[in-house]
Design a protein that fits this description.
Layout (H helix, E strand, L loop, with lengths): L2 E2 L4 H26 L5 H26 L5 H32 L3 H5 L2 H7 L2 H27 L3 H6 L7 E12 L2 H30 L3 E6 L2 E7 L10 H13 L1 H8 L5 E15 L5 E5 L1 H11 L8 E4 H4 L4 E2 L3 E9 L6 E8 L23
Helix pairs in contact: 1-2, 1-6, 2-3, 3-6, 8-9
Length: about 375
Amino acid sequence: MAALPHHSPAHAALSVAGFVVAWTAISFAAAAAVFEAPSQEVNAVVGVALGLASAWFERSWFPRRGLRLAPVPAIALRTAFYVGVTALVLVATFGLGSRGATGAGLVETYTSPEFWAFATDPGNAVVLGIVALASVVVNGARQVRLVLGPGTLSALVFGRYRVPVREERAFLFLDLTDSTGLAQRLGSDGYHAFKNEFFADVAGPILASGGRIYQYVGDEVVVTWRVRDGRLPRSPVETFVLLDEAVRQRAEHYRARYGEVPVYKAGLHVGEVVTAEVGQLKKDIVHTGDAVNVAARIEGQCHGLGARLLASEAALALAPLPEGVEAEAVGEVGLKGRAGAVRLFRVGPPSPRAFAAEPVPGEQALAPAGP
């Protein structure tokens, strides 16, 4: 099958450009609202610097660390970052402008009466206040979106599924292996912490591959993607590949804290479901249909077929597989409670160690088992 890079350079460039354009526009708007004669050059520098810093923070730092924070600390952290960077950029642009005009040294520039007059200018305080308010509003909405799941908030707000809708969706059932044994070895509290850390590690790969967490069921995560025009922009298999990478990077942490590294398996399928909004006291969006049940049944076949990821032929036709990943046919398989067999594929890297972490004694390697 065709290869698909894990991270498209074009997509990354567009994302960074979006941050730069957005923050440059905010900088010009804030300056125009505060200063009688705003400096176009300073506004541009502030906007570009904030945009680049934001792109690094939101695409690199925050997904690895910030997703583990509770909503209020996460909003506070983001706001502090944006306000701090804005203040630093303002101070830096003053210094550049002042030194360029007077030729003064760095110490003289930042100890001059002009700098203290600049630092105490009420206009700067208003700019920082606007940045802080914008951050709280935007990131507050983003945290609510994370709590409900990407796509759920807008669907509930706009009533997209108040009337049931038939649509095609892909479903990935991702399950921790040997959960009973883990619970016995780690104890209730230890297993809960272990499972929560694993769920936190799953979040980044799901977001990166365009998926949405449908629900948690015990030690299982159910992920879904909406199929549009018979295709998906990203392969659901990418979630599994990126998760392998995330677990490999944190394997030593898991071993040091729990003596165990997460081992997991998954089933992937696609089909038509009925999607509808349910509930009054607690609203949710549910998917009902054969595709959900079949994906769960496929995941249940992983152990017997020696696979960590099993996918139906229909699911693999949605998008090219990520680079370095192959699909091996295992044949037509009958699933419990369903008439007719489903053609399944064992999916994984061509080399058993391509995404492997060093297993602890007695632990299954983080790579597909052979046939």
